[in-house]
Amino acid sequence: DQQVKQNSPSLSVQEGRISILNCDYTNSMFDYFLWYKKYPAEGPTFLISISSIKDKNEDGRFTVFLNKSAKHLSLHIVPSQPGDSAVYFCAASDVGSARQLTFGSGTQLTVLP
Amino acid sequence: ETGVTQTPRHLVMGMTNKKSLKCEQHLGHNAMYWYKQSAKKPLELMFVYSLEERVENNSVPSRFSPECPNSSHLFLHLHTLQPEDSALYLCASSQEGTGTGGYTFGSGTRLTVV
């Protein structure tokens, strides 16, 4: 059973518009959430994170929103740029699992010029 | 060299071969991980080494054997693999106890079993 789910395998967005990537989780013990970005032939790189004590964290064009009651988080990219085209992985961890990350299956974002 | 380095980048091996994947981290982290990424699947955790002690995922077949000689190096020894083992194998490291849970990944080894 997947504890972290990214139900959209792909998303296409026009350059300059907002990209919204979604992630759902089932384990209520998760208290820290991260987004990773992966280009082809490279390993994932850390993008942004959020603790469960917050509902929003912003870093430049990237904002992560957390809705604990719905067990849902989202990543907003505004404005989207062609260089943002990549696979985005959502991940979650909890203290009980020694902060090991559980990943979603990823969403391929394509930003069209 | 900085970050997490994996070698080789690409590997093609027959089902009867024995090969090893190597990972080295230059970040002073105290935990290292092997992940498997198959097409359109979540990153699957294979093995964790924390303070050089192995925390094993029991669902990993014995044809995969990890080795962590010190906190900076991690190996994945492969023998008698199957074609379905073809995937991208990613190494990562982290500093446990910082509370952030962030991992630094290597670029991966693209393994093809023929």
Shape summary of chain A? globular
Biggest interface: chains and residue counts?
A-B, 25 and 28 residues
Percent strand of chain B: over 45%
The first-to-last residue Cα distance of chain A is: 38 Å
Note down, in words, how this protein is organized.
The complex is a heterodimer of chains A (113) and B (114). By secondary structure, chain A is an all-beta fold. Chain A has strands spanning 4-5, 10-14, 19-25, 32-38, 45-51, 56-59, 62-67, 72-77, 86-93, 102-103, 107-112. In chain A, the strands form two sheets. In chain A, strands 2, 4, 5, 9, 10 and 11 form a six-stranded mixed β-sheet that branches. A five-stranded antiparallel β-sheet of chain A has the order 1-3-8-7-6, with no helix packed on it. In chain A, a hairpin with a 2-residue loop joins strand 6 (56-59) and strand 7 (62-67). Chain B is mostly beta strands and 114 residues long. Chain B is built from no helices and eleven strands. Chain B has strands at residues 4-7, 10-13, 18-25, 31-37, 44-50, 53-56, 64-70, 73-79, 87-94, 104-105, 109-113. In chain B, strands 2, 4, 5, 6, 9, 10 and 11 form a seven-stranded mixed β-sheet that branches. A four-stranded antiparallel β-sheet of chain B has the order 1-3-8-7, with no helix packed on it. The radius of gyration of chain B is 13 Å and the shape is globular. The N and C termini of chain B lie far apart (32 Å). Classes of the chains: A mainly beta (113), B mainly beta (114).
List keywords for this structure.
heterodimer, A: 5-stranded antiparallel β-sheet, 0% helix, B: 114 residues, mainly beta, 7-stranded mixed β-sheet, globular
